[in-house]
Amino acid sequence: MLAVSNTSPLSNLASIGRLDLLKSQFSEVRIPSAVAQELAAHPDPNAIAVIDSALRQWIRVVPTQDTPLYRMLRRQVDPGEAEAIALAADLKADIVIIDEQEGRALARQVGLSITGTLGVLLRAKRSGLLQMIKPEIQALRNRTRFFLSASLEAEVLSAAGE
Fold this sequence. Notes:
Elements: E1 2-5, H1 7-15, H2 20-25, E2 28-32, H3 33-40, H4 45-57, E3 59-62, H5 68-74, H6 79-91, E4 95-97, H7 101-109, E5 114-115, H8 117-126, H9 134-143, H10 150-159
Parallel strand pairs: 1-2, 1-4, 2-3, 4-5
């Protein structure tokens, strides 16, 4: 299964030591150049080390093509999101991993299947890779700027059987 990711899910998962969940869930993970540049600016040296290792081993950086879709997206969202959505569309990716609401809405508009950090955690729980999601959500809150509403948290925990 081919996945294209935006910056925040990779950054968030690396920050809580769970970037490997992507490798176990997707046969290929690709990111556009802008996402690689944004990841290089991560403030946590431990997360940077995890990200760099993944970039050397199993995450592939793909240059962005200057397509009409990319130009349209670039006017609406930041470069990483625009490139990730355009790359996912160009590659006919099975899924795009993106957290930001505006980016998710645009990805849906162009016909892409989406998931985000919480979706990756939920898939991991369902496949037995995680025992519980609640500690992972707490780690996201403690180590990143991850925000989720109480209602979304309750929905995710319910879907996870917690």
